[in-house]
Write a structure and sequence with these properties.
It contains four helices and four strands; from the N terminus they run αβαβαβαβ. With 137 residues, the chain is α/β, with parallel strands linked by helices. It has a four-stranded parallel β-sheet with strand order 2-1-3-4, sandwiched between helices. α2 links the parallel β1 and β2. The two termini are 25 Å apart.
Length: 137
């Protein structure tokens, strides 16, 4: 969210090497309601017409079965979000849009390669979010 805040205000991000010159940002949240996201954005003083928020949880037409294969979930989500050429697509969180064992190197590598190819084909940047603090190991 801090990255979105920096982008919307045109200020340097927490990651100075990241260029935030995107025509549009699509924020896709897989585990929270859209209203929760807008409340958080409001607390950060973010109101930008170039920002689209899409909550998979709120979309009752998005079948849970699509998440059996994260590649299917990603493609179906893109059909709904329609990320524009040159935009940033933030996936919060990334795992629902990947396939296989998340602690298996090979499965993760294959999923990331698939997302990289999708990004290249769509001419977008994909930023995946992972909440490591929520994990129990």
């Amino acid at each position: 969210m801090q990255l979105i805040s920096a982008w919307s205000k045109g200020v340097p991000s927490l990651l100075p090497a990241v260029e935030l010159d995107y025509a549009r940002v699509h924020y896709v949240v897989a585990d929270r309601a859209e209203a929760d996201i807008y409340q958080h954005l409001k607390r950060l003083d973010v109101s930008d017409s170039r920002l689209d928020v899409y909550s998979v949880i709120d979309d009752l037409t998005f079948p849970i079965e699509w998440f059996i294969d994260g590649r299917v979930a990603f493609r179906r989500m893109c059909e709904r979000v329609k990320p524009v050429d040159g935009s940033l697509l933030i996936l919060d969180t990334l795992p629902p849009f990947t396939s296989g064992n998340l602690i298996g190197y090979r499965d993760v590598m294959i999923s990331l390669m698939e997302l990289q190819r999708e990004a290249k084909a769509r001419n977008i940047t994909i930023l995946g979010v992972h909440h490591a603090g929520k994990s129990r190991t």
